[in-house]
Design brief:
Elements (H helix, E strand, L loop, with lengths): L1 H11 L6 E14 L6 E13 L4 E22 L18 E26 L2 E22 L12 E3 L10 E12 L4 E10 L9 E12 L3
Antiparallel strand pairs: 1-2, 1-9, 2-3, 3-4, 4-5, 5-6, 5-7, 7-8, 8-9
């Protein structure tokens, strides 16, 4: 995490002919790439945009991100207090129940995006963005209902922090790509696709699709 902050401080400290502050906000859906359903996702942050020429810019940022995933309606075997699978007394087939799991995680992210501006009108542009990102999981919460491997009240509900008490990995790295339209007032509206190369639980990778809005404070 210290390395991420150091890179950000160095990047915004670079002197350039044009430096523009950006405020960013977005919302959409997040999930894991395998065996999960999507949940709401949100992002809020700020960064700088450094101009190379009339088309290319570089924009490092720090973003607070909320994302997660859910696994609803998972069929599980019902078990007795000793952990043995319970059988239907008439058919002798195993009894089953439904398990629901939902996870929400909170991250600090650092996207490092290269942007290409295609002018359409005076001070209006189509913008294409791509680049890597780094993230660190601050905290999270996993809610579990119907876990027949638990005893007592926890069979019906319990929760835990996936980073502290589960197998969730705090460090995350991947790629972000997007496209949008910048209006003459400095507002850009677009869509971002975010895909992690790292596995959050040793098997699955986080994926997000968000509507993104940013405001650019142009220099003189």
């Amino acid at each position: 995490m210290k390395k991420i902050l150091l890179i950000f401080i160095l990047s915004i400290g670079i002197t350039a002919q044009a430096q523009h502050l950006q405020l960013k906000v977005g919302g959409g859906l997040a999930k894991l790439d395998k065996h999960s359903n999507a949940v709401p996702a949100w992002r809020l942050g700020a960064g700088y945009e450094l101009e190379f020429d009339q088309h290319w810019t570089f924009s490092p940022a720090l973003v607070f991100a909320i994302k997660g995933w859910e696994n609803p309606d998972e069929t599980v075997y019902k078990k007795d207090s000793e952990g043995n699978i319970m059988l239907d007394p008439e058919t002798l087939k195993p009894l089953t129940g439904v398990k629901n799991t939902e996870t929400v995680t909170y991250h600090v992210e650092m996207p490092l995006l290269f942007n290409y501006y295609l002018r359409t009108k005076e001070r209006q542009y189509v913008v294409f963005s791509a680049g890597p990102y780094l993230a660190y999981g601050i905290s999270g919460k996993t809610k579990v209902k119907g876990d027949t491997d638990r005893q007592g009240a926890e069979r019906y509900y319990y929760d835990y922090d996936p980073f502290k008490d589960g197998d969730g990995k705090r460090f995350e790295a991947g790629v972000q790509v997007g496209a949008g339209y910048q209006f003459s007032n400095g507002v850009t509206a677009g869509v971002d696709f975010i895909y992690a190369f790292t596995k959050v639980d040793g098997q699955r990778k986080p994926v997000s699709v968000l509507l993104n809005f940013s405001y650019l404070f142009r220099g003189k």
